[in-house]
Amino acid sequence: DAGRVAEGLPREVIDAANNDWLLAQMTTQANRCAHFTCLLVAVRHADDPEPLIAEGHWEGELMSTGQGEHGFGFVPLLWLPAYQQ
Predict the structure, then answer these.
(1) By the 8 A CB rule, do 59 and 82 touch?
(2) What's the pTM value of the predicted model, to 2 decimals?
């Protein structure tokens, strides 16, 4: 929830603050199973009768620290065992 940090800050600052908040909430949790869903809808115009819809789901685990250099949002905290990343 990007609304946890004041608007107008750089995305990286907001993401880091939200990730810190989530990790603080999870410190006592043994079950760190996580689920990531992404939905994309593309329309050609406002009244497009046939929008293009793509949906993806990934099962993973919430790590205790962020990993990687190119993720955004909660992505750096999600480990996907099926992809070893």
Answers:
(1) yes
(2) 0.67
